[in-house]
């Protein structure tokens, strides 16, 4: 599962966040969106973890206040 994340999902998340926020801009959440994705996939598996990661990305936008948002 982690190999799938590392090879396919992580680069996609990086591309999305770079295009939205520009290079070098940090995530407004703690843990970062990438770390959140890793943790959710490890905890829930590829299908549910990817879904949680997708929902997290929907919350990650310039109007969001961000803050601490751990995998539950």
Give an overview of the whole structure.
The protein is mainly alpha-helical and 72 residues long. 64% of the residues lie in helices and 6% in strands. A two-stranded parallel ribbon has the order 1-2. The radius of gyration is 11 Å and the shape is globular. The mean pLDDT is 84.
Spell the H/E element sequence.
HEHHE
Give the beta-strand count: 2
Structural class: mainly alpha
Termini gap = 19 Å
Q: Give the C-alpha Rg.
A: 11 Å
Rounded average pLDDT: 84
Helix content: 55-70%
**Which sheet architecture does the biggest sheet show?**
2 strands, parallel
Low-confidence stretches: none
Q: Tell me, briefly, the overall form.
A: globular
Query: Please, how many helices?
Result: 3
Q: What portion of the residues fall into strands of 2 or more residues?
A: 5-15%
Strand order of the largest sheet: 1-2
List strands and helices in order, with pairings:
Elements: H1 2-21, E1 29-30, H2 33-44, H3 46-59, E2 67-68
In short:
By secondary structure, the chain is mostly helical. It has helices at 2-21, 33-44, 46-59; strands at 29-30, 67-68.
Keywords:
72 residues, mainly alpha, two-stranded parallel ribbon, 3 helices, 64% helix, globular
């Amino acid at each position: 599962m982690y190999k799938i994340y590392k090879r396919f999902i992580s680069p996609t998340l990086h591309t999305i966040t770079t295009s939205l926020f520009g290079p070098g801009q940090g995530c407004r959440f703690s843990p970062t969106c990438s770390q959140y994705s890793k943790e959710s996939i490890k905890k829930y598996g590829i299908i549910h973890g990817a879904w949680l990661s997708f929902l997290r990305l929907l919350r990650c936008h310039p109007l969001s206040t961000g803050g601490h948002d751990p995998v539950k």
